[in-house]
């Protein structure tokens, strides 16, 4: 989407790999004239105020969860919204949760399942996208059309038949039952195919003249050029799988196979008020993705743009 | 998309201009049909097994009285399930709830995301913090969202009611009053999922070339004028895309409602997917649940075609 649709509209666009904010700050010296805000300090101050206000609103629920996790159960269930507990802050909730033994199991399950699903999805989707983009095989057009059409199927309506299928295949309460149905990602095949279509064929031609076979070309020419898009697809799939609730919830009833979201939801159901412990469990459960995002947020924003989803 | 230009992209633009010398004949010679199949097979196997087959099974089941407990297939009952579905008031009520939720959430999810992206796009210092604050909630598993908000919503101890009381207002039964329950769910959904739309908008904004702003400024356009005549028009296609994706996502709502209210109070927040789930897994009527699924699927397809039509007409 990007190159094709953008270039006619932006003939003189400077190509730069520098982050936009840096370019802009340098060009306008950080003040004086600003492309969206204009001149003068007032718009800047108002923008900062609005940003700060929305940030506070969006972070307060997080903050409340973190705050609660460091309270005693008595304070956590006390009336009123005091941020500072009467009995002082404590690590009790974390000690109890980590001592229960279930959370580590769910965390390991989440990691195993998310990593497996991501690895398999990226591999088979990239291969299929390459086949659709670059090779001719009988039925290529039909299969591609069916793949695209299937993007519209809401995954939830497949739950019942899939569950029956798992029963018939004798896979209920196995890792395979949780993982395998999640690796079919037609939208990712479509995104990857669009990207492969834009890679110049001359590069592959050169490799073929040097005697490389199809697989060799794919592995050492196409894949290295596709790193940003593969990262984007991997990030999407990983986040979705990590947070997927319905399918893991239905395909496993064995606590030993539960993922974090499913396991955490059962903690709440089986007990009464344990606000501090549940908050601690929630924080432990969401830390992995938050750390990944904090470390890679610039790349993630860029990857989203690479997919063409965020482009013009 | 200045920051995104990779060598591959630059070369890609070049090769397209040069005209593709790689003909179909070349394809055939260099990568015979066998290689294509080899690359496509793993995906197609999974695709068939876990997408096409379940679609087929579901369609077949919707014409039978299959149940979760019974072994083997149910008895063929023709269109009975569909006739029942169209006359089932629960189907219409839960479908109504789903549509109401979609209407309630789509507009704020688009507008708030746009406002966030426009604010962050100004390049004010603290980019890292703003992006984290607005996107981080999108990374939370639904169980965590549920945990945090069920605390905030608690009628007697929750933070939201304490805030209302500080301002001299009465507390609200956020999740247990039929009047407010769906709005509360909408609020949670806005907080939880706006980050993805925000990111899409931010990526789109970063692709707007600077010279458009410079040209507009030279023509004497002020900051507001530039927002209305440069920024927003450039975002039209992105907005259409986000709106379509958002409607599709909102129609599929299930997780947060199932955890926060179990569809209550009195069925006021029960979405159609929960009805399908309850029918299939609690009442064991898989055949009927499948029929309702396919009615819902049909509605989704009609809606997406209608949306595509509306947006493609607006493009012209």
UniProtKB/TrEMBL annotation, chain A:
Keywords: Cell membrane, Membrane, Transmembrane, Transmembrane helix, Transport. InterPro entries: MetI-like. Pfam families: BPD_transp_1. The chain crosses the membrane at residues 45-64, 106-130, 142-163, 175-196, 217-239, 279-296. It comes from Streptomyces niphimycinicus. It is found in: Cell membrane. This is Carbohydrate ABC transporter permease. The keyword Cell membrane applies. Residues 1-21 are annotated as: Disordered. Residues 107-296 form the ABC transmembrane type-1 domain. The lineage of its organism: Bacteria, Bacillati, Actinomycetota, Actinomycetes, Kitasatosporales. CDD domains: TM_PBP2. It comes from the Bacteria. Belongs to the binding-protein-dependent transport system permease family. It is a multi-pass membrane protein.
From TrEMBL, chain B:
The chain crosses the membrane at residues 36-61, 99-121, 128-149, 180-203, 286-306. It comes from the Bacteria. Keywords: Cell membrane, Membrane, Transmembrane, Transmembrane helix, Transport. CDD domains: TM_PBP2. Its main location: membrane. It is a multi-pass membrane protein. Pfam families: BPD_transp_1. It is found in: Cell membrane. Signal peptide: none annotated. Residues 95-307 form the ABC transmembrane type-1 domain. Belongs to the binding-protein-dependent transport system permease family. This is Sugar ABC transporter permease. It comes from Streptomyces niphimycinicus.
């Amino acid at each position: 989407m990007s190159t094709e649709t953008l270039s006619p509209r932006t003939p003189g666009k400077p190509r730069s790999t520098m982050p936009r904010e840096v370019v802009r700050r340098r060009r306008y010296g950080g003040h004086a004239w600003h492309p969206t805000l204009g001149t003068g300090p007032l718009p800047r101050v108002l923008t900062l105020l609005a940003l700060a206000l929305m940030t506070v609103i969006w972070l307060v629920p997080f903050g409340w969860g973190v705050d609660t996790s460091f309270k005693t159960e008595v304070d956590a269930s006390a009336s009123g919204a005091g941020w500072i507990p009467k009995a002082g802050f404590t690590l009790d909730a974390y000690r109890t949760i980590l001592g229960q033994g279930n959370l580590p199991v769910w965390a390991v399950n989440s990691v195993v399942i998310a990593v497996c699903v991501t690895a398999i999805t990226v591999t088979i989707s990239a291969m299929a996208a390459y086949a659709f983009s670059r090779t001719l095989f009988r039925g290529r057009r039909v299969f591609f059309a069916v793949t695209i059409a299937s993007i519209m199927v809401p995954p939830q309506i497949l739950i019942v038949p899939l569950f029956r299928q798992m029963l018939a295949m004798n896979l209920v309460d196995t890792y395979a039952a949780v993982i395998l149905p999640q690796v079919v990602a037609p939208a990712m095949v479509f995104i990857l195919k669009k990207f492969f279509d834009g890679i110049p064929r001359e590069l592959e031609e050169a490799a073929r003249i040097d005697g490389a076979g199809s697989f060799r070309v794919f592995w050492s020419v196409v894949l290295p050029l596709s790193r940003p898009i593969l990262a984007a697809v991997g990030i999407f799939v990983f986040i979705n799988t990590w947070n997927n609730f319905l399918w893991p919830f239905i395909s496993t009833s064995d606590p030993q196979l539960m993922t974090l979201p499913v396991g955490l939801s059962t903690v709440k159901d089986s007990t009464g008020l344990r606000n501090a412990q549940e908050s601690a469990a929630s924080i432990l459960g969401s830390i992995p993705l938050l750390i990944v995002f904090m470390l890679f947020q610039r790349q993630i924003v860029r990857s989203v743009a690479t997919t063409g989803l965020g482009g013009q | 998309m200045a920051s995104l230009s990779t060598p591959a992209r630059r070369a890609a633009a070049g090769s397209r201009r040069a005209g593709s010398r790689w003909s179909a004949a070349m394809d055939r010679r260099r990568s015979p049909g066998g290689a294509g199949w080899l690359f496509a097979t793993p995906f197609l196997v999974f695709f068939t097994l876990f997408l096409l087959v379940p679609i087929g099974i579901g369609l077949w089941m919707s014409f039978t009285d299959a149940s979760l407990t019974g072994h083997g297939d149910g008895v063929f009952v023709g269109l009975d399930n569909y006739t029942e579905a169209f006359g089932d008031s629960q189907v219409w009520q839960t479908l109504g709830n789903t549509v109401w939720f979609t209407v309630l959430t789509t507009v704020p999810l688009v507008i708030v995301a746009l406002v966030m992206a426009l604010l962050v796009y100004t390049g004010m210092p603290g980019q890292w913090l703003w992006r984290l604050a607005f996107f981080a909630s999108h990374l939370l598993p639904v169980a965590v969202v549920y945990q945090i908000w069920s605390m905030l919503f608690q009628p007697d101890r929750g933070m939201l009611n304490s805030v209302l009381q500080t301002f001299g207002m009465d507390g609200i039964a956020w999740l247990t009053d039929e009047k407010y329950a769906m709005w509360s769910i909408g609020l949670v959904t806005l907080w939880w999922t706006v980050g993805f739309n925000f990111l899409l908008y931010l990526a789109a904004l970063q692709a707007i070339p600077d010279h458009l702003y410079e040209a507009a400024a030279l023509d004497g356009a002020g900051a507001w004028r530039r927002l209305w005549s440069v920024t927003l028009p450039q975002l039209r296609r992105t907005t259409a895309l986000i709106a379509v994706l958002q409607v599709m996502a909102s129609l599929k709502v299930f997780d947060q409602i199932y955890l926060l209210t179990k569809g209550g109070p009195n069925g006021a927040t029960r979405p159609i997917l929960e009805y399908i789930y309850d029918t299939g897994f609690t009442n064991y009527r898989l055949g009927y649940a499948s029929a309702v699924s396919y009615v819902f699927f049909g509605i989704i397809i009609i809606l997406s075609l209608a949306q595509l039509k509306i947006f493609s007409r607006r493009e012209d």
